[in-house]
Amino acid sequence: MRTYIAILKGINVGGHKKIMMADLREILSEIACFGEIKTYIQSGNIVFSASEENTDILENLIQEKIANHYGFQVSTIVLSKERLTCVIDNNPYAKEDIKRLHCCFLKTEPILEHRQKLENFDASPDAFKVEKNRMYICCATERYSKSNINNNVAEKLLKIDCTTRNWKTCIKLLEMVKSL
Prior knowledge:
Helix content is 34%, strand content 26%. By secondary structure, the protein is α+β, with helices and mostly antiparallel strands. The termini are close together.
């Protein structure tokens, strides 16, 4: 079995799409190809092992299980341990204060036209860099909620689903997947 990270978009935010992590672990354990499952905080971070190696199939299995159990859709991105390691290792803002750093994970790699629109977006005083299927964000302050570049801007300009995690969460998920 290989280990993976699943990040869910928009659950447990403002009382919407409520999913308890204990319940999520239980329903995901019903998926035949899944092994050990762990979650991290209430925002939908799952570390798991699976015999299935196709991340698209894993995403669909998780999304279908959630939709069938809870009655609502949740966009899911599944990352391999190698992909998350690459994200961590290639952070262009690694020397900045961790409290200012975020990674926006893109569901797919954006087409060039949309990527260029995002790259031309003026987010100052915040900084960002798009690389393949992710966007690194360095906020001018510790308040991502006040940032000029965020998940909504990325989705609007790239026209694809994405979900953002702070850098502390990214590091923790990598630690968890390495220990599973």
